[in-house]
Amino acid sequence: MSGRNDDAVTAMDRDAIKRLEVWIARQSGGRAQVSDLKQLSGGAIQENWALKLDIEGGDWPGSHELVLRKDAPSNVAVSHGRAEEFTILKHAHAAGVMVPTPCVLCEDTDVLGTPFFIMHRAEGTAAGHKLAKMDANDALAEDLGRNLARIHSIADADDLAFVSKPDGPVAMSSVHEYRRHLDALPGSHPALEWGLRWLEQNAPDNGEIVFSHRDYRTGNYMVADGELTAILDWEFAGWSDPMEDIGWLTAKCWRFGAVERECGGVGALDALIRGYESERGRTVHRDQILYWQVMATMRWAVIALQQADRFVTGGERNLELALTAHIVPELELEILNVTAPDTPAPLPGNVSPVRPAPSLAPLLGIARDVIRGDLASVLDGDQRYKALMAANALAIVSRQIEGLETGGGDLADLAANIRAGKGTPEDHALLLARVRATLAESNPRALG
Fold first, then answer.
1. DSSP class of residue 3?
2. Angle at 80 (CA atoms; ends 95, 321), nearest 5 degrees
3. Which of 226, 321, 403, 428 could tie 311 with a disulfide, CB 3.0–4.6 Å?
4. Which CATH class for the 128-292 domain?
5. What's the half-sphere exposure (Cβ side, CA atoms, 13 Å) at 394?
6. Cα 352 to chain center, whole Å?
């Protein structure tokens, strides 16, 4: 077991590593040794582990830089399993999509406790906030377009039978799905109801159905030296309208602050479309891009509310989940701005902000726990004392605001009226004013 990272052995026990080596040896027919094992960042639904594999003899001799992908302790029911994702990855690789080369799948849960697959490691970074800070890169945007066209060229096959096809027009199916999700969540969300009503009224005619990535955005591809090296995270792939992928990639919420670069914060929309059309030989419906950007913003808002609900009612003590709901007002503002009535009403004054779940007290509580439990425990002396003082300050503020009312008691009636098609320009103005009041309190920069 020499040469292994001791921290990695702590995270994945030595017995598991030994079982992995034995399994690989059986698959390859050679002697296998795993080293430099390190869990990669990200992956709330899956765990990704970088590793070096040395094999003597057999069918795969030599040294290999690889990634092992397995289920995380908690996952999302609608995501594909590892065996299904491995199948999708093979089809994408065969279609010429820039993906990590898939190597081998293990469905024997006795090895690591869950199915996993191994693929070659791609170099570069996928961090959206870093990519959006780089110089504008239209060559990258064009390459993203070409690769998206190749994804959309993947043909149906028997081993893709597990990928369900939409029941009816994609746009309306999505509207109905998001309404069902809102009904299952606590509280009322009239701004999102306004957006869903707009999406319903402006739904495009039945479009083409193609194999789609369905999470094709900055953050899910890797870049090295300004060049695309890999498309990642295929767990939501399915059959859809090709414009859904384009809308998701170009939505403002996935530009990481570089809003002027419509292709994911990295390049121009024209460059993306140029790459797509040159590869696929079909014209992009530019008149539908705005519609699918609104749909993308709506989808992300619903997901954010679901993640926050996992913190509030699901008991998951996770600061990232707790913070996710607090991006919803920004998404609501974008939806309301884009879907404003042709003749908007003036904004009312003196409206109350609507604080999203989780409320401020639970949010401060998890922040306090992180400071006290995660940060203070690794600090010493004066720094530890200051961290504990900060945690105590958060506890005081949390207790003081626990009794605050969130306001907006009429939201349920307003949401119901909008869903029933009775929304007025005055309702839109009220919602816009409330969202702006909320952001003035929680994130004034979003109003800039």
1. T
2. 120
3. 321
4. alpha beta
5. 19
6. 31
